[in-house]
Amino acid sequence: MSLNKVTVLGTGVLGSQIAMQAAYHGKTVVAYDVAEELLEKLPDRWEWMRGYYKRDLPDYNEENFNAAIARIQTTTDLKEAVSEADIVIEAIVEDVDIKKKVWAQVGEAAPAHTIFATNTSSLLPSSFGPASGRTDKFLALHFANMVWKSNTGEVMRTTETSDESFEATLKFAEEIGLVAIPIYKEIPGYVLNGLLIPWLEAGSNLFVDGIAQPADIDRVWKVGTGSPHGPFEVYDVVGFGVASHVAKNNPDPRSQEFATKLEESLARGETGLGSGKGFYIYDEQGEIVKPNPAWEL
């Protein structure tokens, strides 16, 4: 099964990266979002990514990047977006009811052969996949943020995913430059987030409890372990939109308080690395200038 026509649902931080990752590796891509003003942000996203592709990829090719942009079409019409798709990759908000509604529409409109993949970070595919009406073709394909560099592709099947769909998606992940990781059983957060989210929550709990400043929590982790990044630097890369939804799903009062603070930051237009302001303030090259005073204890 050849998966050459890709539709990406959602053009936010990860959705736009997924679209570019697929297009840069030769796939034809349709990027869908609910409003034209969201799609109008994509040219700026491409230029933002271009700088990182140049910096991070030893074999970066300028002509290939320009050709990738040309291979990405945009639309606000969901039926049109999926009408010729070999694979649909969903990267919308982490809300089960919204995902069910979207996948029900996709299931009615997509060709019979289309594989359905969700990029959900924290939900089980089986909690909303049945809405598509095609559980044998439904699974998860999880991308890490900064896809071009952190290029894992976790392919997680459900109990109803067919072997053909599973194997085809693993092959597709490799074709678009990912390190394909097969996951044979559903688990919230896959392997990556199963490790990452508890670590991030430990950092946010230390901050919410008033133990130390975000920058100092990062510093002690980096100095003590030799790791290149601390939890709050990673929060900035992940983006506050995703982080707030993950925090909301944790009933711990500290997580709820942290989610509220993240939403207040989002309301100020501070979303993390993508906006140049998160727990840190960044320069145009995405390098840290200083801690953001808005997050000081």
TrEMBL record:
Task: Kindly indicate whether the keyword Membrane belongs to this entry.
Answer: no
What is catalysed by this protein?
A: a (3S)-3-hydroxyacyl-CoA + NAD(+) = a 3-oxoacyl-CoA + NADH + H(+)
Q: Which Pfam families match?
A: 3HCDH, 3HCDH_N
One BP term from GO: fatty acid beta-oxidation
Q: Which residues form the 3-hydroxyacyl-CoA dehydrogenase C-terminal domain?
A: 189-282
Write one Gene Ontology MF term: NAD+ binding
The protein's UniProt keywords, in alphabetical order, are: Fatty acid metabolism, Lipid metabolism, NAD, Oxidoreductase
Q: Where is the 3-hydroxyacyl-CoA dehydrogenase NAD binding domain?
A: 5-186
Q: Which InterPro entries match?
A: 3-OHacyl-CoA_DH, 3-OHacyl-CoA_DH_NAD-bd, 3HC_DH_C, 6-PGluconate_DH-like_C_sf, 6PGD_dom2, Mito_3-hydroxyacyl-CoA_DH, NAD(P)-bd_dom_sf
Top-level division of the source organism's lineage: Bacteria
Name the site position(s) for Important for catalytic activity: 142
Q: In which pathway does it act?
A: Lipid metabolism; butanoate metabolism; Lipid metabolism; fatty acid beta-oxidation
Q: Which PANTHER family match?
A: HYDROXYACYL-COENZYME A DEHYDROGENASE, MITOCHONDRIAL (PTHR43561:SF3), PTHR43561
Q: What is this protein called?
A: 3-hydroxybutyryl-CoA dehydrogenase
What species is given as this protein's source?
Rothia aerolata
